[in-house]
Design goal:
Layout (H helix, E strand, L loop, with lengths): L6 H4 L12 H12 L6 E5 L6 H13 L13 H8 L5 E5 L6 H9 L11 E6 L6 H12 L5 E7 L7 H4 L3 E4 L5 H15 L2 E2 L1 H11 L3 H14 L3 E2 L1 H8 L4 H12 L3 H13 L4 H21 L12 H9 L3 H18 L5 H13 L7 H11 L3 H4 L38 H13 L1 H10 E7 L8 E6 L7 H14 L6 E5 L10 H22 L1 H10 L16
Amino acid sequence: MSSYVVLARRWRPRSFASLVGQENVTQALKNAMLGGRIPHAFLFTGIRGVGKTTLARLLSMCLNCESGVTPEPCGSCGSCTEIIAGVHPDVMELDAGSRTKVEQMRELLDLVVYAPSSSRYKVFILDEVHMLSKNSFNALLKTLEEPPSHVKFIFATTESRKIPATIISRCQRYDLKRVLEAPLVAHMANILTQEKVDFEDSALSVVAQAAEGSVRDALSLLDQAISYGDGGVKLAGVTELLGLSNRAGGLELLSHLLSGQGQQVLSSTATFYADGTEPEALINDLLDMLHTGVRMQVAGDKQKNIKYDEMGEQLQKITQSSSQEHLQMVYQVLLRGSQDLRIAENQQQALEMLLLRVAYLKPVPDIGRLIKMATKAGGNPASNSGEAQGSSGFTALPDSPVASPVSQPNMGIKKNDNKEPITAWQQLITSAKKSAPELAMKLEQQVACLDFYNADDGSPPRMVLQLVNDCFGPPDQVKDRVVEYLEKTGLSGEGVVVEPASDESRPETIGERATRVKSEALTKLVEDTKEHPIVRELSARFQVEILNVEPLNDKSVQ
């Protein structure tokens, strides 16, 4: 029984056309051979598994094919078959990592002077050339600069920065790129079709993403997936093999994160842990979803991505409920937190704390709307006092691009046009400061009371409220919090109405009134101080000017 040959070796490219994702390099090499401008030394750089050594062998075939120097070697002549088999006497492929000593380099250079025994060129392929010692590089310099006409050097490396500049300057350098996901998926699909293996496109997409642009890594993972799936490549099998999270569960977790549902976040995280999902893989999936969702918002780009073909609309709906600023902040927190996971002794514990930190991030308001409102208001307290409290809003209320008004029952309440806050409303906020200080601060700074009526017959209190702006959540969420507080204090919330922000005139909030009263009192204090007889006498005698006045005991500047 013959030994099995892995896909990465069995499907090694035999022509420039079959080399995946390196058209920029192959086109330059083709033109060089057609134009007769073939250099004596080549340097191929790039990450592992993108085709450096394969390209070196292909170039050797192009130079020594019996049909002549050609960009399309026949692959069937004696020279081509020997190069493919690795037994050509004039094509020497050496591992620089095992020949680092200068004595070994000198032995190699002694062979340069001899003419090829059976072909056109003597080709020296040095793989991982960056591992040569400094003395070995120095011994190579002179020969590399002016080699015999029958000699070609081909260097391959994953660490070009470790190669001396004197070596690089003597070579033509070609940088091989990471292979993009789409061509890599197409390449794997073509191989599996010819191998007569059943597969799912979504599974190939996950394999390509895990390979990180390396064709060899992708084919190695594909070999494992075929074995794991008992002759087929399915998404469920690949997900289990790589320890990745499932997409549906990831979308559900992302929804919980963006809506601030901490308890559901912990429940979803426990499910992923039980399924064997690696914490770092889960974070990477969340980052990928956020990136795709932001692209959908910015460019309207659904990406035609295999991974999200079935769930693209759901992802778009989840991310549209949050502002661009908030999505960017979530992405940054997850990205930085993923680095902490690697050094954490208990990764599951660190993962839960990271996700809870994201879930309870304060929603970031839309900066454009804040500037627009500030411009309209001209900088008065009615537009600015609420913005100063941006970090103390309701816990984890997501920013809503459009605040839709709550359906309002017809209670026949006439709006109060006076600018003074209603007394009962002030009493409610004062009471809330003791048991719900966060809610009280929100109501004091962000909500204006249009009307408040509490009958003596025991009927539910009726209040009509209006948001100062719509940067911290829609009216229905504010209403829910007010109703919840009233019910905890034994009152009914049936008569609560919360209207969205409006450019129309409205009463002041409690916070705005306090700011205005303090400002007016300070202005009056400055005027009274300037008019005081002693101050006037000092000003006239010493020609001094009062620049600022501050009260000793600031109790709203009495």
